[in-house]
Amino acid sequence: MELARTKTAAIQTSGIASWFLSARRGGLLALALLLAVLPLLFPNNFYYDVATKTALNAIVCIGLNLLIGYAGQISLGHAGFFALGAYASAILTSHYKWPGLLAMLAGALMVALLAFIVARPILRLKGHYLAMATLGLGIIIAIVINREIPMTGGPDGMNVPALWVGPWRLTGAVTWYWVSAGALLLAVWLSLNLVESPIGRALRALHGSEVAAETTGVDTTRYKVLVFVVSAVFASIAGSLFAHADRFVTPVEAGFLRSIEFVTMVVLGGMASTFGSVVGAAILTVLPQVLAAAHDYKHMALGVIMIGVMIFMPRGLVPTLAAFWRRRGSS
Amino acid sequence: MSLLEVHALTKAFGGVHAVADLTFTVEPGRVHSIIGPNGAGKTTLFNLITGLYTPTAGRIVLDGEEITALPTAARAAKGIGRTFQNLQIFFNMRAIENVMVGRHLHAPRALLSSMLQLPVIRRANRDAYDRAAELMRRVGLAAFLDSDADAMPYGALKRLEIARALAAEPKVLLLDEPAAGLNPKETQEIDDLIKSIAAMGTTVVLVEHNMKLVMGVSDHILVLDYGRRLAEGTAADVRNNPDVIRAYLGAAAALPR
């Protein structure tokens, strides 16, 4: 209740005080502080690496959450968009010597175009059918990457040149931690902004009742396509950054299990919660590293987590905890 | 000129004609009720006017412009609003956000300015919030300004739908059984609300089973039976029409008195 009231007040009034008071700005500030002090706890480069992967996974999940959590459409193929971004950067910078940022942009545009073209027929489907169609799309992308050996190196993967930004050559675990932390903050900010806008309300509305959204003037098809494209572009950019951070990409990044991983992160962290996506990505990226000995059981663990969340915490971690604190605050 | 014209409208589901060769007009600024026994085709008619169903035959004209082929959202943009007999609330949103969605057609909707939350979007958010709060107070939901939609009682949700529809500033508002399931006090509030909506210049088309409400608020009543027009006129005309009595109460009741 208390949270709702502060949120309401933040929309009503403007000024410096409410800027910091509002839950979203407060969360963004807290995340920035966390990302800034986290390296103090890192004893070696391995930790920076894991944190970088966490941030990049989180960016994919933030985009995916716009689609799944806010607009209520499922995708089991987002690893495909992630991999397309990664390979676009890898191929354009190594085979064609494009500047890294331009390659990243080209990858994002290509993914946006692909998502736009397939979105209309695919998003006409609902529920299981939509899941199957997006699953198929992801698998097709994985097959193409596996088979186009002269371009992609096939199952062996391919090396990726370092990313140049102007005169700077971005290499090393520490540098990439800061780059991906910055990208993550930007993604969170963009997502929070979008959610709290007429478009964001339209997305949540078509999730709540497609019929009511339409009769209120929301062109539901248009907004489904829009959010599908936006979420694919988030994945593509994260993929490009991943390729340059890791300096190596393999078709595993396009795989079905990778798509499932992303969806599990979103569901665990919390549907329709931008910060939930960050938490979900963090837990499921860090956990396998901590339990490295149990690596063989990773995908089984994903399944168990998914089932557990669905049964005991269907709204996911962050929304459930937020509701808990709200109740405590008001009683 | 009539605000809404329906010409020879027909909707067949297989062999059943839910709406059959129906023609009528709705005059601006008035309350126009459509009544009839269950299954007479009232909700089907609303679904045809809003574009949720495609008619088998016939035309629908709004404000002199044919809208028969337009998709639902485009009709909303032309000025058709509605509420639902079976609630269609956005339960994943707060109550006031439900009404803010109603401002969609009047809000800026560019992707880039939304993601960057440019001043134009911040202003639109504030305006939508203020307008939604004002509408919620107007329909008697001041107590629910901070509520989640899924925490509200049935009667309040009925009014939330009306507020959401009004937020779009429709030319014609289709109300599908707004008083169904409400107690007498709540029904009286809906009665007052409908009168005030009409008084503000919004044309109302009302489908309702509560005859006291219908007879009290309607300027004009259309009676449907099996998808056809059975009778039409003022409350007094309709009340005394033998065909209407027969349709509602059975043939015996309409025998000579």
Describe the structure.
The complex is a heterodimer of chains A (331) and B (257). By secondary structure, chain A is mostly helical. Helices cover 76% and strands 3% of the residues of chain A. Chain A has helices at residues 2-12, 16-21, 23-37, 45-70, 78-94, 100-123, 127-147, 149-152, 173-195, 198-208, 210-215, 220-246, 256-269, 274-290, 298-312, 317-330; strands at 158-159, 163-165, 168-170, 248-249. In chain A, the strands form two sheets. In chain A, strands 1-4 form a two-stranded antiparallel sheet. In chain A, strands 2-3 form a two-stranded antiparallel sheet. In chain A, strand 2 (163-165) and strand 3 form a beta hairpin. Chain B has helices at 42-50, 72-78, 95-101, 111-115, 119-138, 154-167, 184-199, 211-217, 235-239, 242-249, and strands at residues 4-13, 16-26, 31-35, 57-62, 65-66, 80-82, 172-176, 203-207, 220-225, 228-233. The relative contact order of chain B is 0.18. The A-B interface holds A 1, 4-5, 8, 11-12, 14, 72, 190, 193-194, 196-202, 204-205, 207-209, 211-220, 226, 230, 272 and B 50, 52, 71-74, 76-77, 80-82, 84, 88-94, 96-98, 100-105, 107-109, 111, 114-117, 121-122, 124-126, 128-130, 145-146, 148, 161, 164-165, 168.
Outline of the structure:
By secondary structure, chain A is mainly alpha-helical. Chain A is 76% helix and 3% strand.
Number of strands of chain B: 10
How far do the termini of chain B sit from each other?
Answer: 40 Å
Largest interface: A-B, 36 and 51 residues
Tell me the distance between the termini of chain A. Answer: 10 Å
Report the biggest beta sheet of chain A as strand number plus sense, adding barrel if it closes.
2 strands, antiparallel
| Shape verdict of chain A | globular
What is the radius of gyration of chain A computed over CA atoms, rounded to a whole number of angstroms? 20 Å
Helix and strand sequence of chain A:
HHHHHHHHEEEHHHHEHHHH
- The quaternary organization reads as heterodimer
Percent strand of chain A? under 5%
Tell me the helix content of chain A: over 70%
Query: What proportion of the residues of chain B form beta strands (DSSP E)?
Result: 15-25%
Number of strands of chain A: 4
> How are the strands ordered across the major sheet of chain A?
1-4
Quick one: overall form of chain B?
globular
